[in-house]
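Much of our argument rests on the idea that a fold can be written as discrete symbols. The amino acid sequence and the backbone structure tokens for this protein are reproduced below:

___
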Amino acid sequence: MSLKYNDAIAKRAMAMNERVRNYQENDLYYLNLPITEFLGGSKVLVGGREMGMYASYSYLGLIGHERINEAAIKAVEKYGTGTHGVRLLAGTLDLHEELEETIANFKHTEAAISYSSGYVTNLTVVSALVRKGDWVISDKLNHASIVDGCHMSGAKFTRFNHNDMDHLEVRLQQAGNAAKLVIADSVFSMDGDVIDLPKVSELCKKYNAWLMIDEAHSVGVLGETGTGIEEHFGMPYDTIDIKMGTMSKTIPSVGGYVAANKELINYFRHASRAYIFSAAVPPAQAAASNEAFKVILDEPWRIEKLRKNADQFINGIKALGFDTLQTETAVVPVICGADEVAYAMTREAHKRGFFVLPVVSPAVGEGLARLRATVTSAHESDDIAKAMAVIGDAGKKLGVI
């Protein structure tokens, strides 16, 4: 079936279809692979074939955890599979209140609020916080959900160069006396490096700016007990004004949340559109998330093992001659250069049973296409060594190293 109109919309759609078709014809297309079953976190069945899993956000290997599964099953048995509507009308269960209390305790704040997805959380919270006449100042490598929330807010949206504190200060000076919100990822999802929280916090205090940090990739990853970036830097737990996080990465469920003081959380309950107009997180997912936060604190060995695995992988890949940028976490970019090379590296890895996926333009800059590999606490040292060997052989074959 052809597109209805021959206009700019049709041309954009056709251009993307042509790009995909070209990759498919050259055996370079690896999106939407049919993952059929998880096997203990470190392995996965893809079309019936067992492969090592290095594209998972389950950093602590909590998918399938017995306690978390049991909590979800009990919630379904008690409440069923859904709620009766949006939270403000008929959708709030005691499970949601318990989950938000657990999150607040975990993040050392007075209160918390949950939403149906991490993407929606950033969209609604940023647009609720700032309006026309305000300034929102964002790191250039922030997640798309942050960028979209900034655009939607109507505030003056400007960016500072990635982790460049001198440039952030320039932006804060430019904002003058306007209300200001500075927002950054804690761990950057494409590069794996960590925002300079001590300096960001210092500048926000100096220029009377609110600070919001997206901890999607830092909960369970940063800090001795996995509570996140404030613990990682040994900073007071009230350093960050708005602590955003997801429940679909380290937390093996779905949804997003914000933890903050009571006044802000109460404001979000009455002013954030995704809370007012979107259905509540289903009972099983709320219960699973609630239990997962508790498991993180009860099983600190997972965090220690994740750090050891990440160090082994990063150091090993760098020793082979690959550029991994400034990563210091479980997200490890393996720079390949051109988009086609990243796709070819993926093809070679898949042939040898190593499941990893490429990230290409426009998600990253031209010439910075990469394998975005992730390690988890579910991996064993021997598995990681084999994965590095596969990447190394592919890199030599394709001239990356």
